[in-house]
Specification:
Order of helices and strands: EEHEEHHEHEEH
CATH superfamily: CBS-domain
CATH class: Alpha Beta
Strand content: 15-25%
Distance between the termini: 30 Å
CATH architecture: Roll
Structural class: alpha/beta
Number of helices: 5
Radius of gyration: 19 Å
Shape: elongated
Strand order of the largest sheet: 1-7-6-5
Number of domains: 1
Amino acid sequence: MKSIAFYLTPKNEVIFEYEDASLRQLIEKMDHHGYTHIPILDAAGRYVESVSDGDVLKKLLSLDPISRKEAEKIKLEQIPKHHSMEPVLITADLADLFSMIMVQNFVPVIDDQGIFIGIITRKDILLSLEHKLFENADTEVQDKK
């Protein structure tokens, strides 16, 4: 069985934000990249949680009309998170990952020190399964000939 590292998108290819970033920075990053969830890291690079566009929207709705300048003063730690993505250790097995990826669009991957090393996306898992499914189907057709 393949290691979950096979599916890893490394940190240097992942869009994330640090917990001391402002709401404005987060909104601009999410808008620019078109993401609905972004991992949040602490200054040491450890995974803290994820923030969703829904979390941002709920925070904005709880405020009076807000300007971009005011959004700069709101830090990510002030945004209540309603559904943070649970991380998985890089040493976890595929079965652990599979149960998580069924309910999360991505799974943050950490090392044994809690340092964020990347993500595994549901899309990457599905593409791998698709490849195996059609590879097996082609083999069955060949065997029947």
